[in-house]
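P.,

For your records, the input lines for the assembly:
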Amino acid sequence: AQKVTQAQTEISVVEKEDVTLDCVYETRDTTYYLFWYKQPPSGELVFLIRRNSFDEQNEISGRYSWNFQKSTSSFNFTITASQVVDSAVYFCALSGVNRDDKIIFGKGTRLHILP
Amino acid sequence: AAGVIQSPRHLIKEKRETATLKCYPISRHDTVYWYQQGPGQDPQFLISFYEKMQSDKGSIPDRFSAQQFSDYHSELNMSSLELGDSALYFCASSLVGRGGLNTEAFFGQGTRLTVV
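Structure tokens returned:
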């Protein structure tokens, strides 16, 4: 069975601090996708990244970076120099790569960036 | 390019009424997924369709039904609405490649259903 665990329910940091959101996953698949989504107060799910299990390179996009460690089944997300606009719920998610595979979400981490 | 379109964006219904949510996938996408997100919860998979056939089914109540039409749009029909059905309903679409592998799924903006 597939499972995504986001142990941090809620995090508060002061603006400009760096913050890391943890994600640990379980799957029996040898090939899979990992995702991060942002859900601001308006409710939409904003796609941030998809990572193929074959690709363990870390990725950086502006202030965002992701650390994929297959050995520990983790896919952590770091926001550098956080801003108030980063306040949202962040979901880590997992899916297989086949036609019938659906995306399984973690419970989410609510991030508060304090001015 | 246009993303996944869901309508309506907001819907208010009374208990025991019926609701129909619509999803228009990205052009040429052949797979549609429906998710339900209750207040403070993570999105939960309801059902998916590939090439107009039901592909997978999650924890979808018997009161709900869905289908995908010839133009690939999908509708989620919800009958005998209950207060607990109040949630955000997301639709996502993807394209299954020739090898049967999914491209990434793109989510619509969601429909917020309130049952009163």
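Two observations worth noting. The two ends of chain B are 36 Å apart (CA to CA). The CA atoms of residues 37 and 43 of chain B lie 4 Å apart.

Regards
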